[in-house]
Design brief:
Blueprint (H helix, E strand, L loop, with lengths): L1 H26 L11 H20 L4 H17 L4 H18 L12 H33 L8 H8 L20
Length: 182
Amino acid sequence: MAIKNLQKIVDDEIDNLKYEWLNEVRKSDYLTTYKTFSDEETIKRGEAVFSYLREWLKEGATNQKAEVYFEKVGATRFNERFPLTEVHYAIYLLKKIFWNKIDWRDKVTGSFETSNATKIMSVFNDYFDLASFSITKGYFNELLNSIKDDKKISKEDLKSLLTKGKLNPEVIEDDEFIWRHV
């Protein structure tokens, strides 16, 4: 029941979700690469994650297909030269926007039944956590495949790929690397 209710929220709210995500992308200082795309392309990228969520829920929320899908997303974002932290921040925003659409009173849980709420949270978090893990895996596999044995990767190359999105990446300090709280 809970999975069908989550699926219904995606079905009912997908237009609102994708436009809210576009607005968040446009406002964020951490999503500079996404800002280089048109509104239509940006919306398409956010909508793809929500559409895949809908399909994932319809198929019973199995992980294998989701892993393959998100590994491809990670590889694609690497080839597009997105900083990995920017991709993760985009996923975080998608999760946050969807989370805010859930009406915990009755739409999903059936009037706050604890077991339903726990199951919903588990399924929901599994999807976005698996997305982050698989995107990272696909991104790093593509990074490793791009490095030739006869070529060294420079600190600057790594800095551009692994640092958080920032409006002026050439002034990133060493202490601003990857995992600093944003």
